[in-house]
Structure formats: structure tokens, C-alpha cells
Amino acid sequence: MTNHIALFEPLFPANTGNIARTCAGTDTILDLIKPLGFSVDDAHLKRAGLDYWDKVDVRYHENLPAFLDTISDLSQLYLVSKFADQDYTEPDYQVNEHDHYFLFGKETTGLPEPFMRQHAEKCIRIPQDDTHIRALNLSNSAAIVIYEVLRQQQFLNLERVHQYPHDKLK
User: Fold this and answer.
1) Angle formed at CA 139 by CA 65 and CA 71, multiple of 5 degrees
2) Would you say the C-alpha torsion 70, 139, 1, 26 has a positive or negative sign?
3) Which of 67, 107, 122, 136 could form a disulfide with 61 if both were Cys (CB 3.0 to 4.6 A apart)?
């Protein structure tokens, strides 16, 4: 079982680079659904991902239907949207035999509305104050969601950070 962060037509290379870095640090697969708003050779993308880009399992999909065709159990697909009724902490993301997929929309328009309506039961949201901001940053949102998933999975396969020797902290 593996976790996936999927980005639908991402526009900004820095967001995708930051998400790639999160994926590298959490052993999460990154699915990129075309068209992309940048080249994967973009300097901003590489800078945001630093030297971790080659440590990420990146999978490219020609379009949304092609991405959906790769999912063996659609019940494990979650659509992240501020318009959802269910909070991201409510579903049970425990380890099972199927991968978990978290699909995030394009930075400017989100996921296609007809698609969202068709799969409303799969939608999850991160609570936010809509009177002050339009939306949370995409890379922050991906990190928030994947760390809740990992928390529920007892941080399976993630090493604990080694403690500094106490004498170096003084």
C-alpha cells in the first residue's frame, strides 16, 4: 500500500517542487496530470525540490481519465476541495491492500466542477476562514493532508529523526 498525491494540471513550478520535496520525505508517489503549466526542467521547480527531485516516484498522466484508469479501487480516491462537507481528518486512512490517492486541483480553478459533483462523496476539505483568504497554498495543503494520513498509519516506514547529543544542544 502506498500513498499518492495527485496534482491536476498544476500551474506553478514552485508549488510542484515543494510538493515533490514533501513526497520525497514521506515516501509518497507524486502523480502529475497534464497539461502542466511549466516544463519539468524549469529552474523554479528544481530549486523548490532541491536535490530531492530524483528521489521522488513521479508518474505522468495525459489527462484526468488516464489518471483514474490507474486506480484499482476508486473508493481510495479523495478529492481535496474547500467546497467539500467532510473534513480531511474524518476518513479512515488506515493501511490496507489498496493505495490511497489524494487529488488536488489546479491552483487557479481547482478540480472541474462536473467531476466534483459526480464524486461528491469522495471530497474532503481543510477547514479555513474564507473571509480572509481565497484558498490555502497548494503545497501547504498537500503537506497537511499527507501528514494526517501518515499519522493515522502510525508513520509506517518513516524513520524517526535521530536525537542530537545533549552536549551539542548546550
Assistant:
1) 25
2) positive
3) 67
Does the annotation list 161 as a binding residue? no
Domain that includes residue 105, residue range = 3-168
Q: Which of 40, 61, 11, 20 is nearest to 146 (CA)?
A: 20
Is 105 assigned a ligand-binding role in the annotation?
yes
pLDDT tens sequence across 20-39: 999 999 999 999 999 999 88
| CATH number (domain holding residue 126) | 3.40.1280.10
Q: How far apart are CA 165 and CA 15, in angstroms?
A: 35
pLDDT tens string 84-117: 999 999 999 998 889 999 999 999 999 999 999 9
Domain count along the chain: 1
The dihedral of CA 29, 88, 104, 130: what is its sign? negative
Residue 145 is assigned to a ligand binding site: no
pTM of the predicted protein model: 0.90
